[in-house]
Amino acid sequence: MKRKVSGKVIASALTTTLLVTALTGCTFGFASDPDDPNEVAKEVPIDTSVDSFQYDSSLAGTSITLLNSKAEIQVALEKMSAAYEEKSGVHVEVMPVTDGDSPYTKVVSLYNSGNPPTLAILDTTDVIALAEEKAADLSGEPWTAQAEEYLTEVNGKVYCFPLCIEGRGIIYNKAVIENALGRAFDPASVRTQDEFVALLEELKAAGISRPVSMAKEDWSLGAHHLQYIYELYDGTTPGGQQKIEEIKAGTLDLESYGRLQEFLNMFDILKAYNVAQGDPLGADYDEMAIDLADGKTAFWFNGNWAWPNLAEAGAEETDEYGFLPYFMNNDETDFANSQIQASPSKQVMVDRIVASDNQQAAAKEFLNWIVFSEIGQQMLVRTCNVIPPFHNNPYEPADPLSADIYARVQSGGAFNASVIVPNDHWAVLGAAMQKYLADRSDRSELIRTIEDYWAQQN
Amino acid sequence: MKSKQKGKDFCMFGLPGMICFFAVVIVPFLYGVYLTLTDWDGVASTKNFIGFRNFVGVVKDSQFWSSLLLTFEYVIVVVLLVNVLAFAIAYLLTRGIKGQNFFRAGFFTPNLIGGIVLGYIWQFVFSRAFVSIGESTGWSLFGISWLSTPGKAFAALVLVTVWQLSGYMILIYVAGFMGLSEDVMEAASIDGASGWTQMTHIIMPLMMSSITICLFLTLSRAFMVYDVNLSLTAGGPYGTTEMAAMHVYEKAFTSRQFGVGQAEALILFIVVALISGLQVYFTKKQEVEA
Amino acid sequence: MKQTTVGGTKRKLTNTLAIAALVIIFIAYMFPFLMVVINSLKQKRDIIKDPFSWLFTIKGLSFDNFVKAFVQMDFLNAFKNSLFVTVSATVLVTLLASMLAYYIVRNKNRVSDLTFALMVASMIIPFQAIMIPLVSIYGGTLNVLNHRLTLIFMHTGFSMAMSVFMFHGFIKGNIPIALEEASCIDGCTHMQTFFLIVFPLLKPIISTMVILNSLAFWNDFLLPSLVLTDKKLLTLPLSTYSFYGTYSADYGTIMAGLLLCVLPILVLYVALQKQIIGGVVAGAVK
């Protein structure tokens, strides 16, 4: 009976496969839509004719692994590793962090299984947690000179490679604003909180009654909104870190901390003009991209990582999108009202525990190849479509959001304050922010929650 | 001679399955229990014995206890609804209704949708379908997304779990009904017993072993709820629907307190073991021995 | 089924009512699945903007998602892996669990009691609690991860408790010991008794467990993701990883991929339905 059943299973499964293959293999008349927004893959060809990078031929034949936690560049990384393998003979296997796993959980389970990745792309907090225990010291690597201001140090040593810069702020759709107002719009003309409110009112009068989208997700509220209270202290990493220490120690009274009140003022403004004001916690992330692209809204609080969503929603690279700062007050000279936050977001570490000397050398060569070879430089920007933190990379990102961040980084319109908060900061305080967003708590309750959270970290 | 035969039986019938089970489940579990007594963080190369300090951390974690309380409420509602519904549907599906095979397959399909898709589809239903019903009818019940208010988000969680689990339980109840002798069913109808007495006096007692199994399965699954919790509400709005299993996972990997998370998992296990142990004990007593 | 022949008009009326109720509940049950089917044929923008729109109103309805899912998943290879793992583990667990359950029912001793109690208790161990210990034992110490056989072994081990529990209940309730005693007199060995007499009688529960176990193995994500990292070995659910992004997911392709994954299981279920019905043991329990 057993055999009969499994025979039947195989038979029916095979039939199904054949059927599905036949079905999908068939081209239906309407299968390919020329305006298909899913087909974003308009790729810029990579010029491989020039390559002055010095490969270490003794490493050829080495095989290393790369754990990727940035799912949207999985395919791009595979292409990049193939290009590198062709030149160097080093095989880089790109492993994805799959749905349902956090990158940290994945890397922990891989270390426990005795099979850790040679290279791992992780968030900064993850790398700091693993650095001294597992990571190779990269302080002496040549690329460190090209990204000095973006290096993360743990006790004076560099353990990780900054893969890309990401920035966030209030994304605007210029065409929507200009169409509504019937005049040209210069983002630089908005310099203070009051001027921003005036613009919102003007849009409201022009028919866009609620021009702002804001995500309800805890990572957006807990990390991207709330962390402004540390980062905007003076726009530097040490400054933000110092404020955190003061909050932890209880020496900084949050009730009277100016940046917190200013932040909440701005948050309240966004709240008041939120397109989902009737049900802010029912807002849908994917719909926000469509709303902004279609002109139902004019602003979306988010970062340059939102571009693929906007592109899927129908935005073109030639459209004018960009960032406004998170206006904190009405002082035009306050850097917070003119600059936006841009800092390295994903870091690459090299394993020193299990990886052999050859593998570690190959991993380090791969990182240098990304920074110094003509092919690596192009692929980082054009194939992966990220903003490179390295000074020597001459390529500019193509999409308007990344291009705006890139231009701001070059011209001093961005600040870099990468404060390190505990890993559950976004989750715990994100929930508190959700409550505030839904008007289920007031300022003093929110502030108390923040204070309690930090008190527990001692 | 006889004991030799017994030993042989044990080796042939019992041992292979037992080895598999012990190697995969029990040994890692015991190792996990040992880890709760150390300061290991999942990464460090050394493990220091720290006694019960992780359990002190559990006692202090008030979030854990409130999530456990919420899980209790959830389990009670889910277990009742799932079993009543699944029992009734399975009964109907073994009455010889036309197309019952088609129906059985249909009720089973919810099981086939898992992970992020499950959460996404139901988010549609709660935040769009319900809201558009609300807009056209003006019913305040559907005015805003169910997922944005704590009470309704909890109800949504229950609804989706019932939808998903009952398909599974229908399958087991159907197998149970199929195992009943037709004579029993026929005799019951011929005796002129009314539907309800037939159900409570003849069918229910004979179905007790299926009921035991289904109660146990729903109980343990509801206590362990993680996937649906994560993909539907992710604990929101503002952390009000975070169940115990999700809290344990978050504690170990998001808050990076591996030892405390592991200890909470152990406590969750003990709680569920006690409750389902009691349940099995009491329902077993009701079973009719064949 | 013959029960419907018993009873008169009253029975017919209740039956009609029951069917009506059933149909209504059925539609509610199928609704989300239907949404997956419909949306798998749409483009992402239409899925988000108009998830409920009926097929013929959608412009750009296409099988593109299926083609994309098929290619990106490396479907045939992943299908082969899934099939090998699922079939092997299902056969293994069906055999081992039915034998172990039979042993426990027929041999009341301390070892069998303890094993059964442990198995019941183990069904409520949260998987998260043994995840890390599991990989450190099998990866760190034994170094046997990244083999399909390891995954088959683990699937078997994890489903053993539940399967034994189910077989145990069925054997205890439905298999009279008198049958075996009769075969003993005929001079059968215990092995022969089990495979010739008992095993065929287990058909309904075997069909049920084959469905439940193969579904669990086929769709499982977490365990295979811990055991298999080599791309050539990935099973179907693992191979859909590339459809998920950090901030957004490719819903159309995910749904198409999901349908491609579950179709074989649906076919299996429909096929086994007949087994469950054909194998009713009612006659043997007289």
Q: Please name the CATH topology of chain C.
A: MetI-like fold
Question: Which structural class matches the secondary elements of chain C?
Answer: mainly alpha
**Quantity of strands of chain A, as a count:** 11
The oligomeric status of these chains comes to: heterotrimer
The unreliable regions of chain A are 1-41
Describe this structure in words.
The complex is a heterotrimer of chains A (458), B (290) and C (286). Chain A has helices at 2-25, 74-88, 103-112, 124-134, 174-181, 193-205, 218-225, 228-231, 237-249, 258-272, 285-294, 307-312, 357-372, 374-383, 400-411, 425-437, 443-455, and strands spanning 63-68, 91-96, 119-123, 153-154, 157-158, 160-173, 212-214, 299-303, 321-324, 340-350, 414-415. Chain A has 458 residues and is of the alpha/beta class. Chain A has 2 domains: 57-166 and 343-402, Periplasmic binding protein-like II (D-Maltodextrin-Binding Protein, domain 2, 3-Layer(aba) Sandwich), CATH 3.40.190; 167-342 and 418-455, D-Maltodextrin-Binding Protein, domain 2, CATH 3.40.190. In chain A, strands 1, 2, 3, 6, 7, 8, 9, 10 and 11 form a 9-stranded mixed sheet that branches. Chain A has a two-stranded antiparallel ribbon with strand order 4-5. In chain A, helix 2 packs antiparallel against helix 14 (374-383), helix 7 crosses helix 16 (425-437) and helix 16 (425-437) packs antiparallel against helix 17. The longest helix of chain A has 24 residues, at 2-25. The model of chain A is unreliable at 1-41 (pLDDT under 50). Chain B has 290 residues and is mostly helical. In chain B, 76% of the residues lie in helices and 0% in strands. Chain B contains 12 helices and no strands. Chain B has helices at residues 2-35, 53-60, 62-92, 100-108, 115-137, 150-179, 182-190, 195-206, 208-223, 227-233, 244-254, 258-286. In chain B, helix 6 runs antiparallel to helix 10 (227-233) and helix 9 runs antiparallel to helix 12 (258-286). Chain C is mainly α. Chain C has a single domain (63-285), classed as MetI-like fold (Orthogonal Bundle). Chain C contains 13 helices and no strands. Chain C has helices spanning 9-39, 44-49, 64-72, 75-106, 110-122, 127-141, 148-174, 177-185, 190-201, 203-219, 222-227, 236-239, 251-278. In chain C, helix 4 (75-106) packs parallel to helix 7 (148-174) and helix 10 (203-219) runs antiparallel to helix 13. The two termini of chain C are 18 Å apart. Chains B and C meet through helix 1, helix 3, helix 4, helix 5 and helix 6 of B and helix 1, helix 4, helix 5, helix 6 and helix 7 of C.
